[in-house]
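A quick aside before the break. I want you to see a complete sequence-to-structure record at least once, exactly as it would be stored in a machine-readable document. Don't worry about memorizing anything.
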Amino acid sequence: MPVPPVGPVGAVLTAMVTPFAADGSLDLAGAQRLAAYLVDDLGNDGLLVNGTTGEAPTTTDDEKAQVIRAVKEAVGDRASVMAGVGTYDTAHSVHLAREAANAGADSLLVVSPYYSRPPQEGLLHHFRAVADATDLPVTLYDIPKRTGVAIEVETLVRLSEHPRIVANKDAKGDLEAAQWAMARCDLGWYSGDDMLNLPLLSVGANGFISVVGHLVADRLRQLITAFYSGDVCEAVGINRSLLPVYTGIFRTQGAILTKAALNLQGLPAGPMRSPLIDATADQIEQLERDLRAGGVRLDRP
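That is the input. The structure line, written in tokens, reads:
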């Protein structure tokens, strides 16, 4: 059976939280410890920093650069570091792209401009401007439930013609659009919605940029391996075993419960920054039930 090649940024990446100290300041040593754990213990090919799960709207430009440097130092050549640089301002996104490149990022993630809801021609200009700003490969991030605007198939096809736009993180929840886009262009395709990991693999995705990868990246690797080795029944079984984790982490905003889960495991995470808030006691109790149902150990050092 032919196996699609590994995508341009790997197969399993985790969208990493940004650990904070109790006073809300950056915990760079914690970020390094967590990054090393995600790569060396759970087997991630890469880590996305300064994304949604990394609470990027609450970190300063300087803090973003510090996180990139710290995580890159921690993982070295064992994994790639993708940096989120997208904002609703093209000029600021271009600035963040250049800063990320200077800080040592291996690639960039650029979300659609949010709030202003630009037309498709505006999206084309925005993404091309960021891609032109550095020599780093760019992954688009299509998540209209957060941004208010979807990247249409025709726009994805046109963007794929740019030599540095290499992949798309798909959190659109539209399998029809995903299939047409994959059929019409050669972008690497990554699930950005954990509940759709297996469905997107089934129509040609290369892998995942995952939130639950903090907890189960090793099992996500098993899922991809089983599916593309032709053992679909095994892949379905692995995916079903992960359903409580997929659901449990997103009962409220994903970063909140991801940090709660990491805190339960004794891994660096710390508190949330406002406007996000820490999980309540009831939410943590439910999270523990969900994670145990999904086979996640809560006693890792």
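Two observations worth writing down. Strands lie at 12-15, 46-49, 80-84, 107-111, 138-142, 165-170, 188-191, 207-210. The mean pLDDT is 96. We'll return to this after the break.
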